[in-house]
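Need C-alpha cells for this chain, all 150 residues.
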Amino acid sequence: MFTLLRTNSKNDYFKNLVTLLDADLQIRDGNEHSFYAQFNKVDSINNVVVCFFENEAIGCGAFKKYDNLTVEIKRMFVQPAFRGKAVATIILKELEAWATQFRYCKTVLETGKKQPEAVALYMKNGYAIIPNYGQYENVENSICMMKKIK
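Here are the C-alpha cells for all 150 residues:
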C-alpha cells in the first residue's frame, strides 16, 4: 500500500513536502513561526524518509544526530488527505529503525502546543514529555519528548 524511500534532504519530493509543512506551520505558529523556522533548516540532513502512495509523495520525516546516543526527529509531515491512516506512524517507525542501525538508542523531538495531533501521535508511539531542551528550554509553546529505541 505505502512505500518508503530512505534518502536525504536534497530529495525533491522531500523538499516539496517540507514546503507544504512550512506553510501549515506558518498558520499554526503565527508570529512565532520565524523563531521555530531557524531550527528547521533542511539543507544538510542525511536521514530522510519519504512515504509514497501510488507514486505520490504523501509524507515525510527526518532525523539528525543530537548527541552520541540520541537523534532528533525533524520535519514530520503527512498531506491532509492521508492523515488518520497511520502514515505518520509508519514514517516514525522507519526513522526509529534506521537510527538503531547507527546504534542510537534514544530519540528526542520538539513539537508545539498548537499541534495537538502531533502530540497525540508521539504519545501513542511511546514518547514521553520531557523538560524542554536546548533552544526550546524557555519556549512556552514548545513540547519536547523522548523515547528509548534500543
